[in-house]
């Protein structure tokens, strides 16, 4: 489940960019920067929160203050954990070789989702392992 959320949030980050994202450098850190880890983490947390029973109950009540509180809780979680999330993403993408990282950066630049997904699916288990504890 977490791996699917990671892959989906990576695609959301990829699709949300107005222009093709570019790796600052052809390494894991440059790639992660291009994937906008803060926005990716916020998206992933929001998706996870919205799938909970609590969020469903809040939506049923249509209590705007409760929705604000949930949004605020996501923002607080992002603030507290974004640095760790970014470090874990970098460590996970570093499991690929330098040549593979160049291919991922090329796929981002060309918006080649199929090529990107091949690598994201390989990195997904490492992301899950890094973030489980």
UniProtKB/TrEMBL annotation:
Judging by the UniProt lineage, the source's domain of life is Bacteria
What span is annotated as the signal peptide, if there is one? Answer: 1-24
**Organism ancestry:** Bacteria, Pseudomonadati, Pseudomonadota, Alphaproteobacteria, Sphingomonadales
Full protein name: Lipoprotein
Keywords in UniProt for this one? Signal
């Amino acid at each position: 489940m977490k791996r699917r959320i990671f892959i989906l949030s990576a695609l959301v980050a990829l699709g949300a960019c107005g222009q093709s994202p570019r790796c600052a450098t052809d390494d894991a850190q440059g790639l992660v920067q291009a994937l906008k880890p803060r926005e990716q983490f916020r998206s992933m947390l929001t998706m996870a929160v919205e799938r909970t029973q609590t969020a469903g109950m809040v939506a049923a009540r249509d209590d705007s203050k409760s929705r604000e509180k949930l949004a605020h809780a996501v923002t607080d979680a992002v603030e507290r954990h974004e640095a760790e999330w970014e470090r874990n993403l970098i460590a996970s993408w570093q499991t690929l070789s330098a040549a593979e990282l160049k291919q991922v950066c090329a796929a981002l630049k060309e918006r080649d989702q199929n090529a990107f997904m091949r690598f994201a699916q390989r990195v997904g288990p490492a992301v899950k392992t890094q973030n489980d504890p």
